[in-house]
Amino acid sequence: MKREISILLDPESLQRLRGDSACTVVDTRGEPDFEDAHIPGAISLPSNDLFDNNTVGLDLLPIPEIEARVRKAGIDQDTHLVLYDDSGLIPSARVFWVLESLGRSNMSLLNGGFLSWVAGSHPTEAGIQGSSASRSAGTLFTALPEHQAVATKQDVLTAIDTPDSLIVDTRTEDEYLGRNSVHTRNGHIPGAVHLNWQDHIQDLFNPVFLPEEELRERYARAGADSARQIITYCRTASRSSHTYFTLRMLGYRNVKNYSGSWMEWNEDLTLPVETG
To answer: Does some domain include residue 1?
Structure first.
């Protein structure tokens, strides 16, 4: 019988799962951090490897390239993945978003990430693991031909005038209000509600999620419900991937993350912007 694994795992639960062939632990930090110390048996898939780091907005790589990199890391189609990082759970949420958008299911995030793992005195190891390709015993990961959870500029423009849609700005309050003069245009997408992604967790040094009921109430007050399409965005779709994961954890199904986010929106002078 297949074991049901929660979408959010605490370190103690992961410790009990270690050694289970049906579970693969994935380190989404950079390779130097992985080599320095990681959860024993983990494989490395840096979140940045799924994006074009030569573009201003950190665009997603073409789907065939993402598929190839995920396969090279040793990730198959079926094994349950437990993703972690040490940067507020943003890198692991980015990987969760991209893989889920391309049809990969059976994934969890490690609550509190590597910081919580180490704080709990759980074991670590250093160095580079053996051939990652040999770690994948199941069916090769096969990406869907199109992203299912990526919102485009046109999707967002349509959502502005659609009552059944909710746009969530996950940046800081200063960014949302247009107080930071760092872009061609500053402010937010018209009609977007502001819910800072950091309000999901205790703090950056203890990135453990707040109780689900508390988070559920916050989103309900903002107008989120299961009947509405929800589109998240930030500056480069990184912080908003954390909100994407949070909404999926809370059971919302119709959620997309705007890949172009503010870096794309503010540069298109034909698009509307609100401040204040």
So the answer is: no
| Residue 82 CA neighbour count, 13 Å, CB half | 31
What pLDDT was estimated at residue 4? 79
Same domain, 114 and 173: no
Cα→Cα distances 98→102, 238, 244, Å: 6, 11, 11
pLDDT along the chain (276 residues), means of 10: 82 92 94 97 97 85 97 95 98 98 97 98 87 56 96 97 97 96 93 98 97 98 96 97 98 97 96 96
Q: State the virtual CA torsion across 50, 54, 60, 63 in degrees, nearest 10.
A: -70
DSSP assignment of 235-246 equals SSSSHHHHHHHH
Q: What CATH number has the domain bearing residue 155?
A: 3.40.250.10
**Alpha-carbon torsion 29, 32, 37, 39, what sign?**
positive
pLDDT at 138: 61
Query: In angstroms, how far is CA 21 from the centroid of its own chain?
Result: 24
Tokens representing 95?
């990987």
* Side chain identity, residue 116: S
Kind of pairing, strands 165-169 and 193-194?
parallel
Contact 27, 128 (CB under 8 A): no
Q: How far apart are CA 186 and CA 41, in angstroms?
A: 45
**Same domain membership, residue 171 and residue 131:** no
Q: What is the reported pLDDT for 53?
A: 82
Whether residue 101 sits in one domain with residue 173: no
Looking at the domain assignment, is residue 143 inside a domain? no
> Could you list the residue range(s) of the whole structural domain that residue 67 is in?
8-135
The answer to whether residue 160 sits within a structural domain is yes
pLDDT of residue 80: 96
